């Protein structure tokens, strides 16, 4: 599918997708939120000149559009290609974590070192050998083949008391924060329920594996969650209006 793209081009597609998606890792951005080449260069640790040249190559292929003073956006074709890159990355992460025993943060670091050399046939066989997982080790969904946009994943702090959700932690999570959360039992794939939300940007109290844990506002905003619609019926109840978001 993406064999004609270089490693740099594939990583750039992935970076554009990440920077032009909202912080919930999936929903479409506002019309004026293209990715700046400076931000792309910083994310990929490349020089601005190299980044500009790579973006031009993607634009020449019809995968991206670069508008001065606006930024870089993916075309529909580019977005589909980006999703295929994200899919492969997350499958490789799953392989590193499930079959080789790497932690989720190590898997994120190591996956790009060889994911781009995999033939499509190997990716397909890896996915089947892993029993077709639905998420990566971080807790984020693995896109379908030629899939549409991924479902939105809001920060834990956006939820209300009574809401239940599955935890996901971005690869960019500070190691000290990840260690703190691990000590609380808040790990990728764990189900949490919001018990209390203190006012004026106060902390959350969440239930994790039968225990109540307190998480501050700053850290709770770094935790993304997958919310199941069936777990949010309480949002519609009149009593919930006393706890506006």
In words, what does this structure look like?
The chain contains 8 helices and 7 strands. It is of the alpha+beta class. α1 packs across α3. A 5-stranded antiparallel beta sheet has the order 6-5-4-3-7. The chain has a two-stranded antiparallel sheet with strand order 1-2.
Sum this structure up briefly.
This protein has 245 residues and is α+β, with helices and mostly antiparallel strands.
**How many structural domains?**
2
**Could you give the order of strands across the largest sheet?**
6-5-4-3-7
Number of DSSP-assigned strands = 7
How many helices? 8
Radius of gyration: 19 Å
Could you list some keywords that capture this structure?
245 residues, alpha+beta, Arc Repressor Mutant, subunit A, SH3 type barrels, 2 domains, 5-stranded antiparallel β-sheet, two-stranded antiparallel ribbon, 8 helices, 14% strand, globular, disordered C terminus
